[in-house]
Write a structure and sequence with these properties.
The structure is a single chain. The protein is an alpha+beta fold. It has five helices and 13 strands. A hairpin with a 5-residue loop joins strand 7 and strand 8. The radius of gyration is 22 Å and the shape is elongated. The N and C termini lie far apart (71 Å). 12% of the residues are buried. About 8% of the residues have low confidence.
């Protein structure tokens, strides 16, 4: 943008755009990113009231202008309560046009999201394909493993639902402080809900939650 000075010597004003697409694993073609319901762009603080921008329709494109390069955060929110996923994008002007590929893994996607994922490539039942990690094959084994340690997972789930609000806040804190990279949690701020897959918790945390429920509710 030669006709619009940036105010910073040596750094010309530039116009740039960013959009999000899916890559079809079968033929490498681009597809609309319909697995997301919105994308939240976190730009540099110097953008002022445009620092945070929420786009709710594919291709989730934003158009801006500026002179500086920076790392931005892009939070994509999946449909069917598939959770929020953060991408880090390096905005630079080394090339006229460039692409960055990011891989997102969904744990236990619900049916609608799963169908959308299948449109961009195969979704395996026993491995990690198309960003989806299927756990159906080892679910029963995982349940057996938990029961062998003397914890009734169904009873634990029922007990957690009977806890009062203050006790539940302690449970959330325990999960956050003791979870592992395999633990699936989702904090739905808008609905005021906290979701956790008990079968993805480490054994020590399962025992901790069980003892906490026994202490609060009795055996």
């Amino acid at each position: 943008m030669p006709d619009k000075p940036s105010g910073v010597e040596g750094f010309p004003m530039r116009s740039w755009k960013i959009s999000l697409v899916l890559i079809n694993e079968n033929d490498g073609s681009e597809m609309p990113a319909t697995i997301f319901e919105k994308a939240t762009y976190k730009l540099h603080p110097t953008f002022g009231d445009r620092e945070t921008q929420v786009i709710k329709k594919p291709p989730f494109k934003i158009s801006e202008e500026g002179w500086g390069e920076f790392d931005m955060r892009i939070i994509v929110s999946a449909i069917d309560k598939g959770g929020d996923h953060e991408l880090s994008h390096d905005l630079n002007f080394q090339q006229e046009r460039y692409e960055a590929e990011h891989k997102i893994t969904f744990k236990n996607p619900k049916p609608n999201l799963l169908e959308k994922l299948k449109e961009s490539g195969p979704v395996g039942a026993g491995g990690e394909e198309n960003g989806v990690k299927s756990k159906r094959g080892d679910e029963s084994a995982k349940k057996r493993k938990k029961s062998e340690k003397g914890v009734d997972m169904e009873k634990l789930a029922e007990s957690l639902q009977r806890l009062g609000e203050e006790d539940l806040l302690q449970v959330v804190e325990m999960v956050h402080n003791n979870k592992t990279s395999d633990t699936y949690t989702k904090n739905d701020v808008e609905q005021g809900e906290f979701h956790v897959d008990l079968y993805t918790l480490p054994d020590s945390l399962v025992r901790m939650l069980w003892d906490f429920c026994v202490e609060k509710l009795g055996s």
